[in-house]
Amino acid sequence: MAKASSKKPRRDTAPIDPMPARIDPCLATLVARPPKGPDWAYEVKWDGYRLAVHIEPGRVRVLTRGGYDWTERFPTIVDDARRLAVTTAILDGEAVVLGDRGRSDFGMLQRALGRLPSAIEAGAIVFYAFDLIYLDGRDLRRLPLRERRRLLEPLVAGREGAIRLSEEVQADGDEFFRVACAHGLEGIIAKHVEKPYRSGRGEWWQKITCKRRDSFVVVGFEPSTVPGHLGRLLLAARKDCELVYVGGCGTGWSNELSRELRKLLERMATKSPAVVLRRKGAVFTEPLLVAEVEYRAWTDDGKLRHASFKGIRKREDEASVFDMASLRV
């Protein structure tokens, strides 16, 4: 296969629009079923970290959903971004690690980023770009999605490096969702192709999940009856700028990971709980970590049902922590 030229095409370098230092991401609203109609396109719902890749002359920045600069954590994405045929750009997408069956695996991503012991290298992380919101001096947010995708695809389609295209599917939404769940995917995203890019949560992007999955603050744990192991994580969500207890989870980890988590949490033990909770035998911790949790539903009193642990990370990107106000969805 012929090697692609790294020479960037000439474009007018005078910016029409100043490049934003940061853009709040467009967020999908959770719905029960995919929307219908020719104005909707579908994508796989990736199981990773939402990122914005800012490409500028002389530097590349990688920002999280909450605005944290994680450039140093994604060296292969940064290196590949420098090879794109652009002068300035902002790519919106998701960083993932693909498992043996080609599915994104959040636990593997956590280990690649170095939070827990791992043989997975950071170079295994792939950024799937699904939107282009700034390109060579032009702010694209006012354009409809179909136009933004038309500009994005020539930049990243067909690439096999760290930056790739998140494929858009024109299909029956119900059938695509059925197939996604049958293949063990987290779910799908539906996007209205005629809408501009709008920061925040709205109806123009919708997510349909095979199982519910969200991020919760770890506020403590219950020891296992097996010495040195973890019995149950105690979890909290945001409510009116405070943390409230929403129950816990006691499954989803291996014996090895159970010991690792127990040691990690013991170093964060505190006598001042972050939530109002009395629980015999519980060890409360500083609210410094966030757990990814899969669950089936909520109880009437606001507790998680059938919760299972999927991954853990530092509580740096506060924007991803579950907000109880969204239970109205």
Walkthrough of the structure:
It is built from five helices and 17 strands. The chain has 329 residues and is of the alpha+beta class. Strands 3, 4, 5, 6, 7 and 8 form a six-stranded mixed beta sheet that branches. Strands 13-12-11-14-17 form a five-stranded antiparallel beta sheet. Strands 1-10-9-2 form a four-stranded mixed beta sheet. Strand 6 and strand 7 (138-139) form a beta hairpin.
Main traits of this protein?
329 residues; alpha+beta; D-amino Acid Aminotransferase, Chain A, domain 1; OB fold (Dihydrolipoamide Acetyltransferase, E2P); 6-stranded mixed beta sheet; 5-stranded antiparallel beta sheet; 5 helices; 36% strand; disordered N terminus
- Globally, the shape reads globular
The fraction of residues in strands falls at 35-45%
Distance N terminus to C terminus? Answer: 49 Å
Number of helices: 5
Element pattern in H and E: EEEEHEHEEHEHEEEEEHEEEE
CATH superfamily of the largest domain: DNA ligase/mRNA capping enzyme
CATH architecture group name of the largest domain: 2-Layer Sandwich
**CATH class category of the largest domain:** Alpha Beta
Q: Which ranges are low-confidence, i.e. pLDDT below 50, for 5 or more consecutive residues?
A: 1-7
Total domain modules: 2
What is the helical fraction, as a range of percent?
Answer: 10-25%
Question: Largest sheet, described in full?
Answer: 6 strands, mixed
How are the SSEs placed, and which strands pair?
Elements: E1 26-30, E2 40-44, E3 49-56, E4 59-64, H1 75-81, E5 89-97, H2 106-112, E6 125-135, E7 138-139, H3 145-156, E8 163-165, H4 173-182, E9 187-192, E10 200-209, E11 212-223, E12 230-239, E13 242-249, H5 255-266, E14 283-295, E15 297-298, E16 304-305, E17 308-314
Parallel strand pairs: 1-10, 6-8
Antiparallel strand pairs: 2-9, 3-4, 3-5, 5-6, 6-7, 9-10, 11-12, 11-14, 12-13, 14-17, 15-16
